[in-house]
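Practice problem 4.
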């Protein structure tokens, strides 16, 4: 008798977690590990948001809420979508979930039947491929080009579309690359979505982290037709340094939101009531604090790029958004450290952690093996020390 469901057996545990676990183990032995692994802002949740959470407890907002979220929060999200993205969503077109990850997973469960195909451009955020498997849908990976900052094109999408395609996943600004899709690039994707009458799940969780002259555009804002086929995902985790609070949301047509509400009503009830009040304060409060965090990320981004420029064995994709640099390590493959060959991103990440005490995320976790991801959601001091160690280590390989 099989005690664990096949679809769960088919899910792979995250490789990124394995490296994090190893880094933590070294730290617990007193080893000074510098980590470039962070997938969350290193800033504390802003004071005004924490205060709203505390007040929610004191005022007794500690009971069940409506399944799709409290009305004032949905109103604030609706206002935000109009102000920032030029999008009009009524309250029954919005659902609040326990983090953007939960929003995406619920959306996939709401629209996918077993066997439906979900197109995932590679490299991709680790959870997409596994979340697709919960409703027994099938991840279909499509390769993208480094020259195009790994943004998926119309031609690439058309090469993998089949009658079974149900959803295309896009992520802008992207993790792990930090690429930001332009209006033209989104228009091309929208054409594919409209021609095939499928959904696009647009993960916009890094919306606020865009640099230089780049501007975040939501694919839903291109026209009414594409808006109707978009499931827009966003949340508070990254913009407001609220990862542990677990608050995300989706905006889509009424049918999709109603279906997501049905799942949520039975599976989760609703996100934590206290978190919802804190999230409301986050959206309604002074946004200058968000800008100051972004300014700090930008400073670190510049520093990291300057340092990487001078390291011959490493190439990188210039990051336009999010808080990661995707670094090409192809030149290291085939080389050796002591007697160990380095032939994969996992080899490199393991040796770097053991020998230089620097933790990075191997690209294989994102579906591409000749890259590593460095996060700059850590202090400038640690970035400097971590890069010093990487530079020193690379001089020792031959
Ligand atoms: N989408 C992407 C691309 C992410 O990188 C992350 C978090 O790392 C999420 C979604 C999930 O965010 P949340 O903490 O709101 O679930």
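Answer key:
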């Amino acid at each position: 008798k099989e005690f664990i469901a096949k679809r769960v057996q088919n899910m792979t545990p995250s490789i990124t977690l394995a490296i994090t676990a190893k880094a933590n183990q070294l730290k617990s032995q007193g080893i000074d590990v510098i980590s470039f692994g962070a997938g969350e802002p290193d800033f504390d949740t802003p004071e005004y948001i924490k205060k709203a959470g505390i007040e929610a407890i004191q005022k007794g907002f500690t009971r069940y809420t409506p399944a799709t979220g409290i009305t004032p929060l949905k109103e604030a999200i609706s206002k935000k979508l109009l102000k920032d993205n030029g999008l009009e969503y009524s309250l029954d077109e919005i659902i609040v979930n326990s983090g953007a990850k939960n929003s995406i997973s619920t959306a996939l469960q709401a629209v996918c039947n077993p066997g439906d195909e979900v197109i995932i451009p590679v490299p991709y955020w680790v959870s997409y491929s596994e979340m697709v498997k919960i409703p027994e849908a099938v991840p279909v990976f499509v390769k993208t080009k480094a020259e195009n900052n790994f943004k998926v094109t119309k031609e690439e999408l058309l090469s993998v579309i089949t009658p079974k395609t149900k959803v295309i996943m896009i992520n802008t600004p992207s993790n792990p690359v930090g690429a930001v899709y332009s209006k033209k690039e989104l228009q091309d994707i929208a054409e594919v979505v409209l021609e095939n009458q499928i959904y696009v799940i647009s993960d916009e969780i890094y919306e606020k982290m865009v640099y230089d002259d780049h501007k975040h555009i939501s694919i839903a804002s291109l026209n009414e037709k594409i808006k109707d086929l978009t499931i827009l995902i966003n949340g508070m985790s990254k913009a407001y340094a609220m990862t542990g609070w677990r608050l995300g949301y989706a905006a889509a047509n009424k049918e999709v939101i109603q279906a997501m509400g049905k799942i949520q009503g039975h599976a989760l009830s609703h996100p934590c009531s206290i978190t919802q009040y804190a999230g409301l304060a986050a959206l309604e409060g002074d946004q200058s604090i968000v800008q100051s965090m972004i300014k700090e990320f930008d400073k670190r981004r510049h520093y990291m790029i300057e340092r990487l420029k001078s390291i011959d064995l490493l190439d990188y994709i210039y990051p336009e958004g999010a808080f990661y640099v995707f670094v090409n390590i192809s030149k290291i493959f085939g080389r050796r450290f002591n007697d160990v060959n380095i032939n994969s991103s996992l080899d490199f990440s393991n040796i770097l952690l053991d020998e230089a005490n620097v933790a990075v995320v191997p690209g294989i976790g994102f579906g591409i093996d000749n890259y590593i991801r460095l996060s700059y959601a850590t202090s400038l001091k640690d970035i400097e020390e971590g890069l010093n160690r990487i530079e020193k280590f690379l001089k020792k390989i031959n």
